[in-house]
Write a structure and sequence with these properties.
Structural class: alpha/beta
CATH class of the largest domain: Alpha Beta
Number of strands: 14
Strand order of the largest sheet: 7-6-5-8-9
CATH architecture of the largest domain: 3-Layer(aba) Sandwich
Mean pLDDT: 84
Helix content: 25-40%
Distance between the termini: 51 Å
Shape: elongated
Order of helices and strands: EEEEHHHHEHEHEHEHEEHEHHHEEEH
CATH topology of the largest domain: Aldehyde Dehydrogenase, Chain A, domain 1
Oligomer: single chain
Low-confidence stretches: 105-117, 226-257, 434-463
Number of helices: 13
């Protein structure tokens, strides 16, 4: 059995319970008692770390980053879970190392809001597995560079992703106990972190529906309602906010200074691709097909930032659609997608297909168009056309192997619509009623690369 990491050493959960993660591994199901133990260790180690000059802290972290970027292979358990071959595993490791080596790490959410002072203390980070090792490392490094202590709550879908980071930090000789890692598929640790005075901030990333549930859950705690009956996995969607109405609240705004830890939410989103009247449609189709359905680096549509829709000028719509189908027919990755780790994503794709049919959209590429049966545990690519901009199917925000083709009258309207779709605070997540904070649920954290919030720019001839 793998373990939590507290006070610089592995330890089992105090309650002795476990859950089954990816593969055959079992992981400790931590509770508030384990979080309390972790916070005690972090708070004991943090003052000495915070007292170091920032340059000294960054030197230590540079050693840990160098250790991570020297890795030639990602964790073999991720390779096995996703169905990567050896060459792809090496490619993924190289891409993650390059991402981690990029200059500038986003500053963690230590500022409580405009005009409010920073608070140095302990941050709790809950990152979605699709952020992968580089996202997790940048989040933790960003927090540590500011003098914070960190408790990482692993994503139960891939809890092992935290282990290489822990080893690298230990080799860099940071104060013992400064970083802790807990495994939990029940949400108990997140619940405890959201109302523990020792925690100055909690960052959570995940699908839009999961982020909305955590936001409502945290607001209930702030009102003194407590967690009873309001656990993140049990809240249902409601229609109290409109897309553009005054009640719609943007994620990451945090709670007011009510004594609770600041909550920063980072919903994982897809983006819009624009195909203008002057675009070279063959090139556009190739880039978009790969951007949605390639195995790497988009994880066959599971990683945030991939295209969820194409806003195509009506004069080139037919030619682009034909070119896209030709590209998909020739794309080997479309016929052998990576495995889906998240049951919530599978439910989202199933409901999206049903919703598209109900709204009058036309599927033009599905599993039936593939040359053979799908590998076990994978999701078929789905391309829908005749998608009108007002339809719900056009507003899907969850990253998924789904592509909606939307015909627009002008390039100007395409750009305007892209801003509306990509920044929608109520982005559709059709699995949100079924998701839980455990497997298939939310994740994310301060210091992570920002979730995509705008149209992805393609090369000039595709804009």
């Amino acid at each position: 059995m793998t373990h939590n990491w507290i006070d610089g050493r592995p330890c089992a959960a105090q309650a002795g319970a476990t859950f089954r993660g990816a593969g055959a591994s079992s992981w400790p199901r931590s509770t508030s008692a384990d979080l309390d133990q972790a916070l005690q260790a972090v708070e004991a180690a943090r003052p000495a770390w915070s007292a170091l000059p920032s340059g000294a802290r960054r030197e230590r972290l540079a050693l840990a980053a160098a250790d991570l970027t020297r890795a030639t292979d990602p964790d073999p358990r991720l390779e096995q879970a996703l169905g990567l071959d050896a060459h792809e595993a090496a490619q993924l490791a190289s891409a993650l190392a390059e991402e981690l080596a990029q200059p500038g790490t986003a500053r963690p959410g230590t500022t409580a809001g405009p005009g409010r002072p920073e608070r140095i203390g302990t941050l709790v980070l809950r990152l979605d597995w699709t952020e992968l090792g580089a996202g997790l490392a940048r989040a933790v490094f960003g927090a540590l560079a500011q003098g914070q202590g960190v408790v990482v709550l692993s994503d139960p879908l891939a809890p092992f992703l935290v282990e290489p980071l822990l080893h690298a930090l230990a080799a860099a000789e940071l104060p013992r106990g400064l970083v802790a890692a807990l495994h939990d598929d029940s949400g108990a640790c997140l619940e405890a972190a959201l109302h523990d005075a020792r925690v100055v901030g909690t960052r959570f990333s995940g699908p839009p529906g999961a982020c909305r549930r955590v936001e409502r859950w945290s607001a209930a705690l702030a009102r003194g309602a407590g967690p009873a009956g309001a656990r993140p996995g049990s809240s249902s969607r409601n229609g109290s906010s409109s897309r553009s109405g005054a009640g719609a609240r943007s994620f990451g705004a945090g709670l007011e200074d009510d004594g609770l830890p600041r909550l920063e939410l980072a919903p994982l989103r897809n983006t819009s691709a624009l195909v203008t009247r002057q675009a070279e449609v063959g090139y556009a189709a190739r880039e978009i097909a790969r951007g949605v359905f390639a195995r790497l680096p988009g994880l066959s549509g599971q990683r945030a930032g991939g295209f969820g829709r194409v806003l195509c000028h009506e004069r080139v719509f037919s030619r682009f659609s034909a070119a896209l189908l030709a590209e998909l027919a020739a794309l080997p990755d479309a016929a052998r997608p990576l495995r889906c780790l998240d049951p919530g994503l599978a439910e989202h794709v199933r409901r999206a297909h049903e919703l598209g049919l109900d709204e009058g959209a036309t599927p033009i590429f599905t599993a039936a168009d593939l040359p053979g049966p799908l590998p076990p545990g994978t999701l078929a690519p789905l391309v829908l056309t005749n998608v009108e901009e007002h339809l719900r199917i056009a507003w899907l925000g969850r990253p998924a192997p789904i592509l909606c083709l939307v015909r627009v009258q002008s390039d100007e309207r395409a750009r305007e619509l892209a801003r509306e779709l990509d920044l929608d605070p109520l982005a559709e997540d059709l699995s949100s009623e079924a998701e839980a904070v455990g497997p298939g649920g939310p994740a994310g954290g301060p210091g992570l690369p920002a979730a995509p919030s705008g149209t992805q720019d393609l090369p000039p001839d595709v804009r």
